[in-house]
Design brief:
By secondary structure, this protein is of the alpha/beta class. The protein has 8 helices and 7 strands, in the order E-H-E-H-E-H-E-H-E-H-E-H-H-H-E. The protein is globular.
Length: 252
């Protein structure tokens, strides 16, 4: 198995993508720590896993993140899949500054805190992998609110982490994973764009597929498998880049 004897922390493990990644890690032999803000969703994921640990931690809380990392001890893999509170579906000129800034501030803070906590401990041991995820919207995506700016900040954070931590044996990589139909529900999308209904969801799915080079949307299983590969020793020296799981180019 690719991750035998490795310890992984999955932040945002109660979500659709977080749960899929946690299950894939466990299937590949990792000891998985499920972290999130809602115990019920974490317990639902843990029910499918053997020996998974649950921790209710707000990834925006510096002291809580550090305390949990201390409790885990040796960390081989850290994955941040925490939601950022993005608001989409309206022009930037109609958006409040609060809605625009929320994903930028929350996304950058959460990823910085979790990556710093893991990076410190990994560097001291001389090995480890930090993985983050965003939608790949930094290169221009209209009607996406602060999502593109948040993604751009995370792209840069990953590259700078890779440059600083690489000489100490730690890799920092990312996954672009926008538009996974299995995660789409009216309720979830309405939280981002209040104008969404079932017909709009189906339209979004079809439109996304048509925009991709492969003309098909990624699946949860494919994203989870990508995360497993990046976390494994088979990824070799891959660092400082984002793997595109959205059906476009492979890496940048």
């Amino acid at each position: 198995m690719l991750l035998t004897d490795k310890t992984a922390i999955v932040y945002g493990a109660g979500g659709s993508i977080g749960g899929a990644v946690a299950r894939a890690f466990a299937e590949q032999g990792a000891r998985v720590h499920l972290v999130g803000r809602t115990r019920e969703t974490l317990e639902a994921v843990a029910a499918d896993l053997k020996d998974a640990e649950i921790a209710v931690v707000d990834a925006l809380d510096e002291a809580a993140v550090e305390a949990h990392a201390d409790a885990v001890g040796d960390i081989d893999i850290s994955v941040n899949l925490v939601t950022r509170g993005d608001v989409q579906g309206m022009p930037l000129t109609d958006m409040s500054v609060e809605d625009f800034m929320r994903p930028v501030v929350a996304g950058t803070r959460a990823n910085f805190l979790t990556a710093r906590a893991a990076g410190r401990r990994m560097a001291a041991r001389g090995s480890g992998v930090i993985i983050t995820l965003n939608s790949g919207s930094a290169h221009g995506s209209p009607m996406m609110g602060g999502t593109g700016s948040a993604d751009g900040a995370l792209d840069t954070l990953v590259r700078n982490l890779a440059i600083e931590l690489g000489p100490r044996g730690v890799r920092a990589v990312g996954i672009w994973a926008a538009g996974v139909p299995e995660t789409f529900t009216v309720e979830k999308l309405a939280a981002v764009n209040p104008a969404i209904d079932e017909a709009a969801v189906q339209g979004i799915v079809a439109n996304l597929a048509g925009m991709r080079m492969t003309r098909r949307n990624p699946t949860l299983a494919e994203i989870a498998a990508t995360a497993v590969f990046l976390a494994s020793d088979h990824a070799g020296g891959i660092t400082g880049t984002f793997v595109n799981a959205t059906g476009g180019m492979v890496v940048r």
